[in-house]
Amino acid sequence: MLNKLPTLNKSDLFELLSQRFDSQDKKLSQIPNPKLLANATNAAQRIVKAIHNKERIVLVGDYDVDGVSSTAITVDFFNQIPYPLVAVIPNRFTDGYGVSPTVLQRINADLVITVDNGITAIEAAEICKQRDIDLIITDHHTPSETLPNAYVIVNPKLSTCNYPFKEICGAEVIWLLLGLVKKELALNIDMKQFLDILSIAIIADVMPLININRTLVKEGLKMIMHSNRPASIIIRDFLNKSQITSEDIAFNIAPRINSAGRLEDASIALDFYTAPDTHTAYKQFELLTQLNDLRKATETQTTNEALSLVNKEDKVIVVASTGWHEGVIGIVASRLVDKFGYPTIVLSIKGEEAKGSARSIGDVNIYELIKENEHLLTKFGGHKMAAGLSLHVKDIKAFAEAINQSVKKVPENDFIPKEQISGILQSEDIDTELLSLLEQFEPYGEANLRPTFLIKDAEVVSIKLMGADKSHSRIEIRQYPHQRNTVELIAFRRVFEMPEDKKLTCSYSITKNEFNGKISTQLLVKKIF
Known about the structure:
By secondary structure, the chain is of the alpha/beta class. It is 37% helix and 21% strand. A five-stranded mixed barrel has the order 13-14-15-17-16. The radius of gyration is 24 Å and the shape is globular. The mean pLDDT is 93.
């Protein structure tokens, strides 16, 4: 594959990237009407009725970025009505996922609304019925054949839903629904004001950055640059850039927001989003940063332990151990996918039960593979690229064997990572003009990956280790022997040692580096061959 790559100049690259989009970007005014979301009008009318009748409304969120963002948008919206709303984000360790019976025990409500969860909450829906609570489920995860017996379910993936674009996250679902509530109540609330939080959710939940997602993320990133929301002010001060990209959010902001729910309690992240002033927002952001540092250390240790348990014969890696922190097993699964190129399930054992996270690769639908073996599970849910599951410890071996039988029918091509190398760039083409060209096709992310290029058999001139713990490498290379100029590559989270032949073949992406007001190109190593 590496031998067949074309050599590209800037105009070739422009043509290549232009082909990704078959039409002009949508304007915000072209986002399909929320009424097209099945049951959304009924849900909006029930919420409005609850407000008119002064009913007790409780919101149940989720502890990941999408769930916390969904909760923050709804809390902010209700504050502006104004109407009292009780927001509950379950604790990963004491409540489990979503609107569980445990969460309902401490809820006193006439109406419960879920955001980014609930599509598998069969038992919770029955408890709500018994207690005469109306349950509105808003979710985007793949529904099972049996749906919860709720008052109403709003989910673009319902077979009855005709919303034109179905790949939206939980925060988008509730944002669209709240747009209908606003109309029903004839409120003067600008729904654009939530785009800063909404864009973070779309990026963090790895939604495809095409269609309306592309529009919302573009506008949301602009919003972060000028929003008066204290959380957005802190984010832009922290990033300290003239232009914020989707990757800045994905690598620097989303992990911090996620770390609260992973290691402690997602309320820390919610308090950051909803902080009334920059002083409070800064304090919460500092807390999130500390938790994120702890998450990194925990994740490194768990990854090293998981690596030693991998059966390299399997095409779906399943590893399990006691003592692994539930909050990092999803990230560990992603690390193993990167290393081995196969879908991975990482299970944390506690007593007789095991809880796990699954991550996939390429076109392998991990949700369907897990569903095929649900008879061995106590609980599962998710989508094509990521899922959560629970099972009895005694069934782990049987499950690992069964899912590896199921995966045999998946074509080999489905395992190929979506990231394709675009071609080979001449080092003299890597300049600020190239950065401007790449910026035209922002935001990059799922379904619009930042282009990746190849450097082949380059001469390694020097290697320097960077970072407090010397865990990153700065590699100086010469692309061709006749060249005087060298190019610098950065390999994050990788200690690169001088190869015997002093040669390097790797894929890399190009990003903008801003430091002390100076703009330069930064080459980031993706994969070393």
